[in-house]
Amino acid sequence: MSDATAVDWTAGAAAIVYQSCPACAAVWYFRRGFCPACGASAPRSHRACGEGVVYAVTRVCRAATPEAKAHVPYTIVLVDAAEGFRMMAHGAGDLAIGDKVVARFERFTDRLVPYFAKP
Asked: Does the residue 10 lie in any domain?
């Protein structure tokens, strides 16, 4: 998959895309034009399977924007993805640290966002 075809949820697609370094094998989430571990250029993009384990959970009880008020309270999770990167996303309210989760995609305000829940 090239960066040109690596469309993910930030562009409205129901997908999570991460990158890896062909030089040092580091993996990360959040696109960059270089490896954050070794600085090598030309990272590779990959589509994640959507599976992971909850690393942290927080409950948001105060909306950051007027559009988010309709969703309060909501849960934000840090997930260690099966591919080895960690990402922040929305999650089900019953999640706890150590839970196995699978991503699906839901609307939050006017955007399609990753939403993790128990399988």
From this structure: no
- Which amino acid is residue 89, in one-letter code? A
Whole-prediction pTM? 0.90
Range of the domain at 58: 51-117
Q: Do 95 and 89 touch, CB atoms closer than 8 A?
A: no
pLDDT tens by residue, 73-93: 999 999 999 999 999 999 999
CATH of the domain at 85: 2.40.50
Burial grade of 3 (CB within 10 A; 0-12, 13-18, 19 or more): middle
Domain count for the chain, please give it.
Answer: 1
Residue 58 lies in a domain: yes
pLDDT digit string, tens, across residues 86-116: 999 999 999 999 999 999 999 999 899 999 9
Residue with tokens 């991503």: 103
